[in-house]
C-alpha cells in the first residue's frame, strides 16, 4: 500500500513515458532533416529515400500488435530496454550506409523494431492503466514528451548536419536513444498496473465505487467481436488517415522549405516550431478531454487545427508563413497522441488497452506509412509538393466528418 506523503507511482510512469517518447519520436522525426543530405551525397531520388521511413512505419506498426499484448502481461521496462538497444543500434549503423538496401535495413528495420518497444502503445498504455479520473491529464502530460523530444533533437540534428555531417548526426541520435531509453525504462517503468501492488487508480485510498470496482476485470478481448465493432474501425480509419498526413509532412516539410529558398537550419527549426505548439496542444487536449462528455469532440477540434494549418502550407513561400503554419498545425498535431488512448479506453476499457491499442497501431501504421513514400512519388513525378499538400487537405476535411460518427460505449457510456 502507498504510505501517506508518498508520490503515487502512476506519476513516475508518466515521467518515464514522457522521457522515453521524447527520445524515441524526437530522434525518428529528425529523418526529414537528412533527406536532402542523402540526396546530395548519393543522388538517390526522394521516393527511394522516403521508402526507408515507410518501411520504418510498417515495421513499427506490425510490432505494435505483439508489444501491446506483451504489455498486458509483463512490466514495460524490459520491452522498452530492448527497444532502446535495437533503435540505437539502427541509428548508429545508419550513419554508415552507402546503398538504399543498407538504409532500409538499418533505419527501416532496426530503428522501426526498436521504436515499437518505445512507442505510444507501450508508453500511453502504461500510463492509461494507472489513471481513471485524471487519465486525460496524465496522458496529455506523458505525450508532451513527443513534442519535447522533437523540438530539442531536430535543431540539434539540423546543426550537426550543417556543421558536421548527417552521419555524425545519426550516430549521436543513436547514443541519446541508448542512454536515455535504457536508464529511464529501468528506473521508472518497473510496474504494470496499480492493482498488482495493492493500489488504486489515480492514487485513491478507497474504492471509487464506480463501474471499475463493480465489474470484473477483463484482460482479454476476442478479435472477432472487436473486428465486428464499428467503433474500432472508426477510430482506426480516422487515426490512420491523420498519421499518413502527419508523416508525409514530417518527412518532406524541411525539403519543401529549402526548395522555397529558406535556410536549412531555419527549415529544420520549423519542425521544432511544430513540436513547441504540439507540446502545448498535447497538454491542452488531454486536459480538455477530461472535461467533455465525449473525448471525440476534443479530437475533432484538433483535426480542425490541422486542417487550417495545412491550408496555410498550401500557400507557404516564406519563412513567416512557414512558421504560421507550424504554430497552427502543431497545436492540432498535439491532439493525436493523447486522444487515441483516451478514446480507446473510453470505448473498450483500460485492462485491454495494450492489446487493442497495439492492433489499432498496426492498422494506423500500415496506412500511415504510405505518407512518406506518397510524398516522394509526388515530388519525383511533378517536381513539387503542391499536390501532396492538396491531397492532405482533402484527407483532413474528410477525417473531420468521420470522427463525428464515432459511437459511444454500448453498455453505459461511462469511462473506466
Keywords:
mainly alpha; Growth Hormone, Chain: A; single chain; 416 residues
**CATH fold descriptor:** Growth Hormone, Chain: A
Which sequence of SSEs, written as H and E, runs from N to C? HHHHHHHHHHHHHHHHHH
Share in helix: over 70%
What is the beta-strand fraction? under 5%
Q: Estimate nothing, just give the exact number of structural domains.
A: 1
CATH architecture: Up-down Bundle
Main sheet summary: none
CATH superfamily descriptor: MFS general substrate transporter like domains
Topology:
Elements: H1 9-28, H2 35-42, H3 46-71, H4 76-94, H5 100-116, H6 120-128, H7 135-163, H8 166-188, H9 211-214, H10 223-227, H11 230-259, H12 264-289, H13 296-313, H14 319-333, H15 336-348, H16 353-368, H17 370-382, H18 386-403
Amino acid at each position: 500500500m502507498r504510505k501517506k506523503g508518498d508520490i503515487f507511482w502512476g506519476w513516475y510512469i508518466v515521467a518515464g513515458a514522457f522521457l522515453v517518447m521524447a527520445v524515441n519520436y524526437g530522434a525518428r522525426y529528425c529523418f526529414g532533416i537528412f533527406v536532402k543530405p542523402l540526396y546530395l551525397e548519393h543522388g538517390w531520388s526522394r521516393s527511394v529515400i522516403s521508402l526507408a521511413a515507410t518501411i520504418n512505419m510498417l515495421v513499427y506498426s506490425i510490432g505494435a500488435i505483439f508489444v501491446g499484448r506483451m504489455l498486458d502481461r509483463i512490466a514495460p521496462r524490459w520491452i522498452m530496454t530492448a527497444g532502446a538497444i535495437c533503435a540505437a543500434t539502427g541509428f548508429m549503423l545508419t550513419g554508415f550506409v552507402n546503398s538504399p538496401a543498407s538504409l532500409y535495413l538499418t533505419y527501416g528495420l532496426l530503428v522501426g523494431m526498436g521504436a515499437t518497444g518505445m512507442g505510444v502503445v507501450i508508453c500511453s498504455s502504461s500510463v492509461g492503466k494507472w489513471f481513471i479520473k485524471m487519465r486525460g491529464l496524465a496522458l496529455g502530460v506523458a505525450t508532451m514528451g513527443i513534442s519535447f523530444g522533437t523540438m530539442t533533437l531536430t535543431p540539434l540534428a539540423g546543426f550537426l548536419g550543417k556543421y558536421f555531417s548527417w552521419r555524425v548526426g545519426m550516430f549521436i541520435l543513436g547514443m541519446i536513444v541508448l542512454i536515455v531509453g535504457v536508464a529511464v525504462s529501468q528506473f521508472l517503468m518497473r510496474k504494470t498496473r496499480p492493482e498488482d501492488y495493492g493500489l488504486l487508480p489515480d492514487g485513491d485510498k478507497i474504492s471509487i465505487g464506480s463501474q471499475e470496482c463493480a465489474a470484473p476485470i477483463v484482460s482479454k478481448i476476442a478479435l472477432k467481436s472487436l473486428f465486428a465493432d464499428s467503433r474500432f474501425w472508426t477510430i482506426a480509419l480516422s487515426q490512420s488517415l491523420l498519421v499518413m498526413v502527419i508523416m508525409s509532412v514530417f518527412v518532406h516539410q524541411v525539403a519543401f522549405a529549402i526548395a522555397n529558398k529558406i535556410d536549412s537550419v531555419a527549415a529544420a527549426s520549423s519542425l521544432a516550431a511544430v513540436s513547441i505548439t504540439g507540446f502545448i496542444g498535447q497538454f491542452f487536449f488531454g486536459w480538455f478531454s477530461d472535461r467533455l462528455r465525449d473525448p471525440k469532440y476534443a479530437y475533432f477540434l484538433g483535426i480542425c487545427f490541422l486542417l487550417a494549418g495545412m491550408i496555410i502550407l498550401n500557400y507557404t513561400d516564406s519563412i513567416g508563413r512557414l512558421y504560421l503554419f507550424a504554430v497552427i498545425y502543431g497545436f492540432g498535431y498535439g491532439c493525436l497522441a493523447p486522444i487515441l488512448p483516451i478514446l480507446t479506453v473510453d470505448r473498450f476499457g483500460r485492462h485491454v488497452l495494450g492489446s487493442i491499442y497495439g492492433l489499432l497501431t498496426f492498422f494506423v501504421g500500415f496506412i500511415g506509412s504510405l505518407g512518406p513514400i506518397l510524398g516522394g512519388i509526388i515530388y519525383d513525378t511533378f517536381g513539387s509538393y503542391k499536390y501532396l499538400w492538396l491531397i492532405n487537405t482533402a484527407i483532413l476535411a474528410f477525417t473531420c466528418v468521420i470522427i463525428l460518427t464515432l459511437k459511444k460505449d454500448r453498455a453505459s457510456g461511462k469511462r473506466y
